[in-house]
Structure formats: structure tokens, C-alpha cells
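Lecture 7, part 2: worked example. A protein chain together with adenosine-5'-triphosphate.
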Amino acid sequence: MKQRQRIAIYGGTFDPVHNGHLEIARRVTPLFELDEFLFLPALVAPHKQASRVSSSLHRYAMLAIATMRDPRLAISTFELERPSGQYTVDTLVRFRSQLGESTDLFFVMGADSWVEITTWREWRRLLTLANFIVVTRPGYEVPTGDLGLETSFTVVDVRGQTEPLGSLPPSTEAARVFVTDVVLTDVSATAVRRAAHEGRREELGQLVPYEVADYLRKYKLYRNSHET
Ligand code: ATP
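Predicted complex, written out as C-alpha cells:
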């Protein structure tokens, strides 16, 4: 039985939110028996500054309509409301200090993000601030070894498990990185933007909820994007 509160934060650009993101939220929440799953749209993801990102308001609006009917899925505007240049490490410090000791904090990311973790600002410190949930993504291997990193964290491989995990291994000084394959969806925001740009309605309908498809048509998002 679970005694402690569990909150997960899922950071990303969400330009736009797509069925892959939503599937992660809907499957990870019961698997880890989360009390709340928070999407955390970045003002502009630091590693994506070179590309043009839709306005925060559009990205927020699409997240809001996509999660409206899920009581445990919510959005944190924390990073959208700060000056730019907020890094995940700063955000986790703030969340950690605001949540009581009786709350376990999780940070969710895809396998493609995890393999780049050492490029994140203050990544060693970052790993001490939360548990991590790494979700498999087609085309990306999830290394479960120590990644050659000279830092201590424990990889808890829960691949193959689809039922609620119940009590989790006790937390030690080392961070815990849970690897789950409860979701394996081949959807990306890049594919959504391309489908929108090329006016492929049917494909769009398979990549995002229909409300999001309607929204991005209505506001003509990605019409002029020229991604290859
Ligand atoms: P883009 O195509 O623009 O790079 P994206 O689809 O990766 O976007 P982001 O908003 O950048 O979407 O992703 C936020 C987080 O969600 C990242 O940690 C990313 O690894 C993860 N993620 C996105 N789509 C998937 C997916 N289909 N499976 C697993 N993880 C995913």
C-alpha cells in the first residue's frame, strides 16, 4: 500500500502535445500510482533554441484541451511564467522545496532525452533532485548500465510490468531511474508539424486528439513551417 504522495513532472516543448505524450501520461500515472501528473511546458527548451517554437499560449492551450477530461493530468505554468533561461534543475529545486517531505517527486522523459542527460545543465545535481521515469521510444535503446557516468544512481528496470508497481524500492542516497516500456508509441511533434504543414488531415487525426487537430487548423499552426 502506498503511504506517500507521488507527483510526476513531464517536461517538454509540446509543440504540439501529441498522442505519444498523452499515452505516456495515461499509462505512467496508474503504473506508478501517481496522485498527479503535471505537464511542464518549457518557455523554450534550452536545447531547441535554434528552431522556431510556437508561442507559449498556443502550446498551453493545446495541452489544456488535450488533458481536460483527465482529472489527474494537469499543467504547470511554472516555466512559462518565469523569465527565459529556466533550466530543469532550477525547476526541480523549486518543486522539491515546495513539496513536503512526504511527497515523492518523479521527472518523466523519453529514452531519446535520457541518452542525452549529460548535456543537461547541472545534470549530476539534477539526478539527486527527483526520481526519473524513462519511457521507451521506438528507435532508441535505453542503456540500463551506469552510462559510464561517474555518479551514483540506481536503475530500476520495470520493463514488462503493466500492473501498478505498489511500494517502490526504498529510496537511498542514490537517485532512482525507473525504465518502463509501458508505452511504445512512434509519434513525434516533428511528424505532427509536417502533417499539418502538408495538410494531411487523416494522418493528423492519428497523431493528435481531434480537438488538437481542430485547434491547429483553426489557428493555422505549422502552415509555414519548413522542416525537413
Ligand atoms: P520534437 O519532434 O519536436 O523533437 P517530441 O515529440 O520529442 O518533439 P517533446 O515535447 O520535445 O516532443 O518531448 C517531451 C518529452 O517527451 C521528451 O522527454 C521526449 O523524449 C518525450 N517523448 C516525446 N514523444 C515520445 C514518444 N513517442 N515516446 C517516448 N517519449 C516521448
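Residues 12-15, 20-21, 109-110, 112-113, 135, 137, 185, 187-190 surround adenosine-5'-triphosphate (CB under 6 Å). The longest helix spans residues 19-31. Keep this in mind for problem set question 3.
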